[in-house]
Design a protein that fits this description.
By secondary structure, the chain is an alpha/beta fold. It has a single domain, classed as Alpha/Beta hydrolase fold, catalytic domain (Rossmann fold, 3-Layer(aba) Sandwich), CATH 3.40.50.1820. The protein is built from 6 helices and 8 strands; from the N terminus they run βββαβααβαββαβα. An 8-stranded mixed β-sheet has the order 1-2-4-3-5-6-7-8, sandwiched between helices. It starts with a strand and ends in a 9-residue tail after the last helix.
């Protein structure tokens, strides 16, 4: 696998990103982390490693600069600024479509918590570039009216014990315009820290992206 540590210009700032490209990759998945997290999130890195083993390239990127992270500690305002995060995520998507290592690969988005909302807004704004979306413990409701514009196959994964978020995901599911599915993982809480639950997330995400990304894949309308 080819690994790169990059600083990527995105909407006026430089964002740190780790890109891993397996040999003969069939697609690339861009991770949008949740509030208070970063590209070093152990949960996202675990899922990314599983995707890499399945032949999918990955990009784990920070959506805030180190300076912004420090300034945002007291209020958390920027971490919940879905407009800001989605613009930067769209810029990272554009980078992947032009980067030598990934330009020929279909792009999928994997979002966690507030990152899921940013992923859905970015997918709505990049209908030709983004081919699929997966949300882990996400807040798709924060994507607002953009939900009605998302036609890409979208998988929403929520823990059984995360009751409030389950309800928010069910309501968001009804608004999505394309193929969509909600999976509730038994015994899992919001962060999927229970034994075996994150492995289930990784399997679900891998199956979803493998079905959609790559040459000859089709999207159900």
């Amino acid at each position: 696998m080819r690994t790169q540590e990059l600083q990527i210009p995105a909407a006026g700032v430089n964002l740190g990103a780790d890109v891993v490209v397996p040999e003969q990759a069939r697609g690339v998945v861009l991770f949008a982390h949740g509030s208070g997290s970063s590209r070093h999130s152990p949960c996202n890195r675990f899922v990314a490693a599983e995707l890499q083993q399945a032949g999918l390239a990955t990009m784990l990127a920070d959506l805030l600069t180190p300076e912004e992270e420090q300034l945002d500690q007291p209020s958390g305002h920027l971490r919940f600024d879905i407009g800001l995060l989605s613009v930067r995520l769209a810029a990272l998507t554009d980078f992947l479509t032009e980067h030598e290592e990934t330009a020929d690969l279909d792009v999928g988005l994997f979002g966690a918590s507030t990152g899921a909302a940013a992923a859905l807004v970015a997918a709505a704004g990049r209908p030709d570039a983004v081919r699929a979306v997966v949300s882990r413990g996400g807040r798709p409701d924060l994507a607002g009216e953009s939900l009605r514009l998302v036609r890409q196959p979208t998988l929403l994964i929520v823990g059984e014990l995360d009751e409030v978020v389950i309800d928010l995901n069910r309501k968001a599911l009804a608004l999505l315009a394309g193929e969509r599915r909600l999976v509730i993982v038994p015994g899992a809480s919001h962060l999927f820290t229970e034994p075996g639950t994150l492995e289930q997330v990784a399997r679900l995400a891998t199956d979803w992206f493998q079905r959609v990304l790559g040459p000859g894949r089709t999207i159900q309308q």
